[in-house]
């Protein structure tokens, strides 16, 4: 079996980073709770390293969510990476994706999400 990372590893990492950030946890704080280095958290969040099933369960427990929350909803005809690819296809999208998890205030993150959604449907 191939042990290289897959596209889904990047999605899991992004969702893990978003959840951690939404809770106001630093990579170091999460790493301490998991018993790993903050560099390992960085690798997970960037999709450079795969997260084992047992570690993903541990992450979900610490972050107060389910393992399923780290995966995109699956439809038969949709590419689970389509939204991520579309977002990161432009410099503006990459800047948005990189900056969003650094917004400390959850209410501000929700407001930004509503603004982007409203602009997208306009």
Automatic annotation (TrEMBL):
Molecular functions (GO terms): DNA binding
InterPro entries to which the protein is assigned, alphabetical: Cro/C1-type_HTH, Lambda_DNA-bd_dom_sf
Annotated HTH cro/C1-type domain residues: 16-70
SMART domains tied to this protein: HTH_XRE (SM00530)
Protein name: Transcriptional regulator with XRE-family HTH domain
Organism: Brevundimonas bullata
């Amino acid at each position: 079996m191939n042990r290289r990372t897959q596209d889904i590893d990047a999605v899991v990492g992004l969702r893990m980073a978003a959840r951690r950030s939404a809770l106001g946890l630093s990579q170091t704080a999460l790493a301490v709770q998991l018993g790993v280095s903050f560099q390992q958290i960085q690798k997970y969040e960037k999709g450079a390293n795969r997260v084992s099933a047992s570690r993903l369960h541990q992450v979900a427990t610490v972050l107060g969510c389910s393992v399923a929350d780290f995966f995109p909803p699956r439809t038969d005809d949709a590419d689970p990476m389509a939204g991520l690819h579309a977002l990161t296809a432009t410099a503006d999208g990459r800047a948005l994706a990189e900056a969003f998890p650094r917004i400390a205030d959850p209410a501000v993150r929700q407001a930004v999400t509503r603004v982007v959604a409203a602009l997208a449907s306009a």
